[in-house]
Write a structure and sequence with these properties.
Distance between the termini: 54 Å
Radius of gyration: 24 Å
Strand content: 15-25%
Strand order of the largest sheet: 4-3-5-14-6
Helix content: 25-40%
Structural class: alpha/beta
Order of helices and strands: HHHEEHEHEEEEHEEEEHEHEEH
Number of helices: 9
Largest sheet: 5 strands, mixed
């Protein structure tokens, strides 16, 4: 059997979640795809997928072998790219993940510009407010905000964002500008319930200070909480990119700048460095340039 084509079929089945979809991607028939998978499993002597009438999922052996197959095909891509001196346009499929709001505001528009520039590329963007396991979930590139915990990933710093306390100018005129983080304990604070229960850590002369603030409004999403602050409902604590448009048009003002929490880094992360196909390398350089405004 054609082992390389069998590897490609295996990867497409895992990524697409069905034999039918994988057959469509490979311009093959469903019976041919079934035979290819059966032959590949027979040759390996293991079952790669658990199959029922409704769904197909990777076995433990399949999850381990999936990354090996990706590395083999990536190495072949590298070898072919070296022979052609990196000539030609990047082509193929990439899956990119990013946090929900940051992805909507910055990553998705950048990916759109990328595929417009590189017409042979096909990109899937997955926006989730959770840490995605790139290897297990078939993600090529991730954008992450905050300190990294997964040491198995390659990470390239892109920039950083700040944690800001903001309020509308009208609210500050009515209630006064807080002079110290502890002033927040007496103020009406607009909270986001799905985030940290305390605000901070504020930098109070070298000490870290966290505060359990309170208020008469709370939301489970960022956007309505920001809108409430713009409307003059109270103080809010957000990441700088979440309120940047409202700061620029002076609908919000920052307060307590001297006590700001430490900056949070932004990284581009991916599973391995040496065996990246050209499409991944080109995209990584693209997204780093697209997000360079966050370096200041």
């Amino acid at each position: 059997m054609d082992k390389l084509r069998a590897m490609q079929a295996f990867i497409h089945i895992a990524e697409e979640g069905s034999l039918t979809a994988a057959a469509r991607v490979m311009a093959s028939s469903l019976p041919a795809m079934v035979r290819t998978l059966a032959g590949f499993e027979a040759q390996l002597g293991v079952r790669l997928f658990n199959r029922t009438t409704r769904r197909i999922s990777l076995t433990e052996e399949g999850r381990r072998h999936l990354e090996s197959c990706r590395q083999v095909l990536a190495a072949i891509d590298d070898a072919e790219a070296a022979l052609t001196a990196e000539a030609g346009e990047p082509a193929g499929h990439l899956t990119i993940t990013a946090p929900m709001l940051f992805g909507q505001m910055h990553v998705a528009p950048a990916v759109t510009r990328f595929v417009q520039q590189h017409e042979k590329m096909r990109c899937s963007v997955v926006l989730l407010d959770r840490v995605v396991n790139l290897l297990e979930e078939g993600i090529d590139v991730g954008i992450r905000i905050g300190e990294l915990e997964d040491s198995s990933l390659v990470a390239q710093p892109v920039g950083h964002i700040r944690h800001l306390v903001v309020a509308s100018p009208a609210w500050l005129r009515r209630h006064g500008v807080p002079q110290h983080p502890k002033d927040l304990l007496k103020a009406n604070c607009v909270r986001v319930t799905d985030h940290a229960p305390t605000w901070g850590p504020f930098n109070d002369q070298g000490r870290q200070l966290r505060l359990a603030v309170s208020g008469n409004l709370e939301f489970n999403q960022i956007a309505p909480a920001v809108a409430a602050c713009v409307a003059g409902a109270g103080l809010g604590m957000f990441l700088s990119y979440q309120v940047a448009p409202f700061l620029q048009n002076k609908q919000l003002r920052t307060v307590l700048e001297d006590f700001e929490p430490p900056i949070r880094p932004i990284h581009v992360v991916y599973p391995h460095a040496r065996l990246l196909p050209k499409r991944t390398r080109v995209f990584i350089e693209w997204i780093k340039k697209e997000l360079q405004d966050f370096q200041s």
